[in-house]
Design brief:
Blueprint (H helix, E strand, L loop, with lengths): L13 H26 L10 H8 L3 H6 L5 E14 L2 E20 L2 E14 L2 E15 L6 E16 L2 E19 L2 E11 L2 E6 L2 E4 L4 E11 L2 E11 L9 E10 L4 E15 L10 E15 L2
Antiparallel strand pairs: 1-2, 1-14, 2-3, 3-4, 4-5, 5-6, 6-7, 6-8, 7-10, 8-9, 10-11, 11-12, 12-13, 13-14
């Protein structure tokens, strides 16, 4: 067929009509999807910000666990240990090389926490060191895109000490329950923890008690505000059916300033327990209260 201006007109066949209708439907669906995405709730991190997205969603191994700048540091730690037990008062000092990395992650319903730390050095009480960590996984019920109640479970443990002080607490499974708000570099989480110690021991000034089989109950608060970090934890160790007859209370407070690339941190641990005197006069009570104050001041680098 030829038009009035000599242009050849091709008569549409049923097959061409069907193809044109299909293309029209696909184009309409694409426009509707784009319009729906424009009004859908957005993640706190822009899609072009790879560092923020990795930190928020834990989908990049290197940023999530190896170079999470606000939670990783390598430095030098000066320690002070003050112990009071019966008639004994001791004051010890030390210098250690230390490392610490910690990360809180959330992606959809999944939630995780990772902690690793270590230190090694020497001082007036001989060789001194610390090692520990935790890795727990769970779920967070989303009451918003960035906050909600959270429950996690996983192994946790740490060892700390020198010739005058030893403390170890290893929990094969520790349960944590609380509330979390996590968006980029801002974290606020508080809750409770509980578990049974698979292995534990507390020793001070030559006397000691085993903690294996004891119940642990604790409260914690973690705050991250850009370059400021705070961690607080109160832990009670209660005798279990197969554990020690001694109670142990631990107060831990830590704070850091992380203006990249440097970091300055202070950590305080206070421990109190009833220990049996190794050598005691007959008139003296069978047990005495041991009180330990352990303070660490760290200066280091953060990526």
């Amino acid at each position: 067929m030829v038009g009035s201006r000599g242009v050849k007109w091709i008569e549409p066949t049923p097959r061409r009509r069907a193809l044109a209708a299909l293309l029209t439907l696909l184009a309409a669906h694409s426009r509707a999807t784009a319009d729906g995405d424009a009004h859908a709730p957005q993640l706190p991190c822009p899609s072009t910000d790879e560092t923020c997205r990795c930190t928020r969603e834990a989908n990049c191994w290197d940023l999530a666990f190896l170079s999470s700048g606000k939670t990783t540091r390598l430095g030098v730690t000066a320690t002070l240990t003050s112990m009071t037990f019966g008639d004994t008062d001791r004051l010890e000092t030390g210098v250690l090389v230390s490392y610490r990395a910690e990360a809180y992650r959330a992606r959809g319903l999944l939630n995780s926490h990772f902690l690793a730390f270590g230190a090694l050095g020497a001082g007036s009480a001989g060789t001194e060191g610390a090692v520990g960590g935790a890795i727990d996984f769970g779920v967070r019920v989303p009451i918003s895109l960035v906050s909600g109640p959270v429950v996690r479970i996983g192994p946790s443990g740490w060892l700390l000490g020198h010739d005058a002080l030893q403390l170890s607490m290893i929990e094969p499974l520790r349960l944590s329950a609380g509330f979390q708000r996590l968006i980029g570099d801002v974290l606020l989480e508080g809750g409770v923890t509980t578990g049974v110690l698979g292995h534990g021991r507390f020793a001070a000034a030559g006397s000691s008690t085993g903690l294996s089989g004891s119940f642990e109950l604790g409260h914690y608060l973690a705050v991250r505000l850009g370059g400021f970090l705070f961690d607080g934890r109160v832990t009670y160790v209660q005798p279990g059916p197969f554990g020690s007859a001694s109670d142990l209370g631990i107060l831990q407070l830590g704070g850091c300033l992380h203006p990249r690339p440097v970091a300055a941190c202070v950590e305080v641990r206070y421990l109190q327990s009833q220990l049996r005197m190794r050598l005691r006069p007959v008139a003296r009570a069978a047990q005495e209260t041991a009180r330990v104050l352990y303070v660490g001041l760290t200066f280091g680098l953060t990526p």
